[in-house]
Each structure stands twice: as structure tokens, then as C-alpha cells.
UniProtKB/TrEMBL annotation:
Protein name: EAL domain-containing protein
Record-annotated EAL domain positions: 23-275
Record organism: Oceanirhabdus seepicola
Covered residues, full protein: 497 to 773 of 774
Length: 277
């Protein structure tokens, strides 16, 4: 037993070592990724199930690493959050969405409302507001067409500070969406004190439908309606989920059942070809 214990301890160390090395190299490369233009956005459609129309798209970041290939956000966003690089990344995303919207506008394509994600860390920093104002002056677009997805996590450290920034973003004309609702530290207070337009039900509750668990999702939908918020269900993968959400007055759905996140070209094709769920 002693030998086995010793061995597994060795393996553990090796794993940890490799994990640290991998992390360090990602961290290093991440610093250069913006300048080297290695990030790009993919766009996942959202469908309004009442009108059967495309409501818009969510922009999701991808990293095209020179040797590792496409890296999903879960593998670098947490690192970027710890190193503070997330501010630059989130700002890059916003600038990219502005530019893309402008180009769609010029081409005469209406893609609906485009949402983008902002990390909790970002919202500690009031400087973001000045940068956003500058961007709005530089690239003139209809700000109403942009939705900012925030998560509850950002209010844990300093509610007042984060609230202040969300209020300012709202004043600038952005729509505010509360993402992953119900997953973490949900406090009904957030709904009262924040200028939220959209509630995005966490995927776990949508998964629940597939396992015949309806209580919580019903509750969240009726809560959203009582508060006159638009309700979006994410991670819809199956017909039964789609059907349930439609019959129970969910407004908008998003998920592999409709489409995976798409390249710009495919998103444009999607909007042209979409007729029915
Ligand atoms: P999220 O904001 O909750 O985004 C939803 C995630 O679920 C996306 O993963 C999307 O591709 C995935 N998804 C969509 N439909 C389905 C489905 O039907 N089934 C399943 N299993 N998954 C589905 P992705 O793109 O890997 O992003 C993961 C997370 O990374 C996002 O979660 C968000 O928290 C973060 N993220 C993505 N892009 C950005 C960004 O530009 N900035 C920041 N700060 N965070 C981002
Ligand atoms: Ca999101
Ligand atoms: Ca989410
Ligand atoms: Ca999520």
C-alpha cells in the first residue's frame, strides 16, 4: 500500500507540473494573441419562438492558436480573468461586434440584436465606460442592437460598483441580459436593482425539461414575465425542450437544436434561409 501511495503521489506531481507548464505557455501566448489577430468571433442564432423569427445572434469568442489550433473560451477566459488581460479581450470583442454590425449595416443585412459577453472582472473598472464612449463615437451604429450579457458572479465582490457600471452601459443604450440565471448566487435583489432587459435561463434548467423536471423552469419563466423581462432559454438541444418552451411561453431559444455557433458567412446564410424552427 505504501508503494502504491508513493507512486500515485509521483503521478499527481507530474500531472500538476504539466498542467502548470501548459498554463504558463497559454498565458504567454495569450498576451500576444490580440496583436497577432488570433481571436475571432462565431455567432449563434437566437429564435423568437412566438414569431418564428430570428431574434439575433450571440457573439462567442474563439482563439486560433498558431500551433494548438482552435481553443475554446473555457480554456483561456479563466486565465485571462486572473491575469487581467480579460479587459483587453472583452474590449476587443466589443470593437469587433461594432465593426461587424457596421459592415452588415452597409451591406443592408439585418441580423437582429447581437449579444456579447462581458466578464465579471471587467465590471470592476470604471475606465471601461470611457473606452466604450470613445468607441461609440468612432463607429457609429445603433446601440440598441447590442445586448450585453453579464453574470451574477460580477456582483459578489462589489455590488454597488458593478451596478454603477451596468447602469452606465444601460444609459448608453445597450440592452442588458442576465446570463446563466439560476445557476450560481442568484439573488432576487439583482432583478430589483439592476436595469435588466433579458433573463437568460441557465442550460441546467433546460436540461431538466428533458428529464421531466419542470418546477424551476416554470418558476423562472413566470418570474420573468411578472417582471416584464424577455426570457431566453439557452442550450436547447432536443425537440421536447423546444416544444415545452414554446407551449410554456418562453420568448426566445438558443441551442444546438437550432444551430451551433456559426462563422460570419454561415450566420449570413442562416438569416437568409431561415423560415421555420
Ligand atoms: P455562455 O455565455 O453561457 O455561452 C453559452 C455556451 O454554450 C457557448 O459555449 C455555446 O457554444 C454553448 N452552447 C450553445 N448551445 C448549446 C447547446 O445546445 N448545448 C451545449 N452543450 N452547449 C451549447 P462557448 O462558446 O464554448 O463559451 C463558453 C463560455 O465562455 C460562455 O458561456 C461565456 O461564459 C464564455 N465566453 C464566450 N465568449 C466570450 C467572450 O467573448 N467574452 C467573455 N468574457 N466570455 C466569453
Ligand atoms: Ca452568454
Ligand atoms: Ca449562459
Ligand atoms: Ca454558461
Amino acid at each position: 500500500a505504501k508503494i502504491k501511495g508513493k507512486n500515485s503521489f509521483c503521478f499527481f506531481n507530474k500531472d500538476l507540473y504539466e498542467k502548470n507548464m501548459k498554463r504558463l505557455s497559454i498565458e504567454e501566448d495569450l498576451n500576444k494573441a490580440i496583436k497577432k489577430n488570433e481571436f475571432f468571433l462565431v455567432y449563434q442564432p437566437k429564435i423568437n419562438i412566438k414569431s418564428n423569427k430570428v431574434e439575433g445572434f450571440e457573439a462567442l469568442i474563439r482563439w486560433n492558436h498558431p500551433s494548438k489550433g482552435i481553443i475554446p473560451p473555457m480554456e483561456f477566459i479563466p486565465i485571462a480573468e486572473q491575469t487581467g488581460l480579460i479587459r483587453e479581450i472583452d474590449f476587443w470583442v466589443m470593437e469587433e461586434v461594432f465593426t461587424q454590425l457596421k459592415s452588415w449595416e452597409k451591406k443592408g443585412i439585418d441580423m437582429g440584436v447581437i449579444s456579447l459577453n462581458i466578464s465579471p472582472n471587467q465590471l470592476k473598472d470604471t475606465k471601461i465606460i470611457n473606452r466604450v464612449k470613445k468607441l461609440i463615437k468612432e463607429i457609429y451604429i445603433d446601440i440598441n442592437k447590442i445586448q450585453i450579457e453579464i453574470t451574477e458572479n460580477m456582483f459578489i465582490e462589489s455590488f454597488e460598483n458593478a451596478k454603477d457600471i451596468v447602469l452606465k452601459l444601460k444609459e448608453l443604450g445597450f440592452k442588458i441580459s442576465l446570463d446563466d440565471f439560476g445557476k450560481g448566487y442568484s439573488s432576487l435583489n439583482y432583478l430589483k436593482w439592476l436595469p435588466i432587459d433579458v433573463l437568460k435561463i441557465d442550460k441546467s434548467f433546460v436540461d431538466g425539461i428533458h428529464n421531466d423536471e419542470y418546477e424551476l423552469i416554470d418558476l423562472i419563466i413566470s418570474l420573468a414575465h411578472r417582471l416584464k423581462l424577455e426570457i431566453v432559454a439557452e442550450g436547447v438541444e432536443y425537440y421536447d425542450q423546444y416544444e415545452y418552451l414554446k407551449n410554456n411561453k418562453c420568448d426566445v431559444i438558443q441551442g444546438y437544436y437550432i444551430a451551433k455557433p456559426l462563422s460570419i458567412e454561415d450566420a449570413e446564410k442562416f438569416i437568409v434561409n431561415f423560415t421555420n424552427v
